[in-house]
Fold each of these.
Amino acid sequence: MENNNNSFDQDLVYAIFKIIWSRKAIEREKNEDAEYSKPEERAGTSKRNRPTSANSNALKLSCELLRLFVTEAVQRAATIAEAEGGSKIEATHLERILPQLLLDF
Amino acid sequence: MDPTAMEIIGYNGSDIDNEEDEEATNHLRDRFRLSTITIAESEAKENNMVISQPVIGCISDLAFKYAEQLAEDLEQFAHHAGRKSVNMNDVILSAHRNKHLADSLRLFSYDLKAKEPQSEKKRKKSSNKEDRAPPSLVHIDP
C-alpha cells in the first residue's frame, strides 16, 4: 500500500482519460449522424458510439507510465543540478533535460 | 462567451458542454498536480535535492498533457484492435518507441498479473479475451 503514496491515483487517471474519451465519442456521434442532426444526444446513447473504457490493470499501468515520466524528469534535472554544484532543482535544469525527455516519452 | 462565437457554434449547447468540460479538466489538473508534488518531492529527496515549486508545476502540466495524449493514443490502439476497452498491451504499445520504457512497463504488467489472480477470477473471461490476440485472425491457408 505504500505504493499508493508514491503514484498517481487510478481513479484520477481514469477521470482524465474519460473526459477525452467522452469528448471523442461525442465527436464521432456528430460526424456519423450529422444528417439526422440530433445535437442533444449525449455520448453513450447509441451503443456503437459508446466512449472507450479501460480495465483496471491498464489504468494501473498508465499510472506507472505517468509516474515514470515525473520521476525521470526529476532525476535527470537532479543530475544536471548536481553537475552544476547546486542542491536545488531550478527551471534552467529542467530546460536542459526537457527536449530529450519529451523524445523519450 | 461573446454572442458572435455563440452564433458560429450554433445553439446546440455545445458551448455549455465545453465550459463544463473545462471546469472538470481544471479540477482534475489540480488534483493531478497534488499527486505530482508528492511524487516529485520524494524523488528529489532520494537524490538529495530540493526541487523548486515552479519546476514541479511545469512537470505536472507536462505530465497532464502527456496523459491527455496518452488517452487519445490508447483509444486509437484499442479501436484498431477492434476493442472498446483499453488493456495493458495498449499501454505497453504506447511506449514502443522507447525500448527501456516498454520493457519496464512490461515487467510491471507481469507483476500486476501475478499479484492479483484472485480478484481477477471474477472477470477472468473478459480479461483473458482482451489480453490475448483474437484467434480468429490466424488461419490462412497457404
Note: The mean pLDDT of chain A is 86.
Amino acid sequence: MTLNMTAETETAKIARGLRERDMELLADLVERCQHRLVRYLLYLTGRREYAEDLAQETWIRVLQRGSQYNGRQRFDPWLFAIARNLAIDYLRKKRRAVATVSLPNDRDAMLLLPSSDPSPFEAAARSEDAMRLAGRLQILPPLYREALLLRFQEDLSLAEMAQVLGAPTTTVTSRIYRGLAALRSAFGEGDSHGG
Amino acid sequence: MEGDKRFRELIDRSFVEEVSEGERQLIHDHIRDCDGCKRYLELTARTIRGLREFTFTSEPDSNAQVREILAHHTETMRQHNVQFKVWAAFAGALSMSIVGSALVYQVAKLLTVPMYFDTAEVQVGVLVFWLLPSFCSALRLLAAPGENRGIA
C-alpha cells in the first residue's frame, strides 16, 4: 500500500513537472532514463547512431507533449512508447523502398526489417553466454528483440508492454515466446514450441 | 511428446507470466523424470540470464547534450508562447476597440437630437475620444517590454 502510494506520488510529480516544463525534473529524468532509452532504441533499430539521435528526439517530444502524460501509469512505458513511434517513423523514412506485406500492421512491419550494418550487441556482451546470444540477437527480428528487452531487462509487466507496443497482451507474449525460442537455439536447443 | 510440448509451454509461461503454485509444482515434479524438459527449463533460464548480461555504455557526454538541447528548446518554446500571447492580446484589444467604438457611435447617434449635435461632430468625437485612444492602447501592447505587458 505504501509502495503504491509512493509510486502514485512519484508519477503525479512527474506529470506536474512535465506540464510546467520543469527543467530540473527533466534533467533528473534524463539522468535516470537516458541510458535505458538508448538501450531500448538500440534493440529496436540495431544501430548505435540511430539510437543516440532518436533518444534526443524522444526527449524533445517529451518536452513538447509532456502535458499528455497523465501520471496515472509509470513514466517509463510512456517514454518508450514515444521512442517507439519515433523510431518507426524514422525507419520508415530510411527504408522507404523495402516492401512490407502480410503483417498485422504497417507500423510493426517496419521493425521487422533487419539492419544491414554490424550490430552493437557483441560489443555489449559481458559474458560468454551473452556473446553467444549476441549473434542471434543481431539476426532476430527487432519486434522480438524489443519484446525480450522490455520483459527481461526493463522488467515491464505484460500490460505495460502492451501499452508500449500498442498490441494486445496475447501478441506481446507470443513475441516473447518466439524471441526466446530463437535465442534458446544459441545454446544448442532446436526443439521449442514457440516456433 | 504432446505432453512434453504442454510442459514446455508451461515452463515458458513460468518465466514470462504468473503461474500458480500448483503449476510450479507440476513443472517441478515433471522435470524430475523428464530430462528433455529439464534441459529445456535450464536453457530457458540460461537464455534469460544471458539477456541480462549485456551492458550498453552511453556516449560520455550524452546526458549533458540532451539537457542542453532541452534547455534550448524550452527557451524557444517560452519565446514562442510569449509572442503568441502578445498577438492574441493585441487581436483581442483591437476587436474590443472596434466593437466598443461602434457601440459608442450608436449611443452617440441617439443623443444627437436631444443634445443638438451634428452627426459629423459625433463621428469626430467617437474617432478622437474613443477609437483612436483604444487603438493606440492596443498598439502600445505590442511595443511594451515583455514584463510590462501584464500578460506574459
Note: Chain A touches chain B through 49 residues (CB under 8 Å).
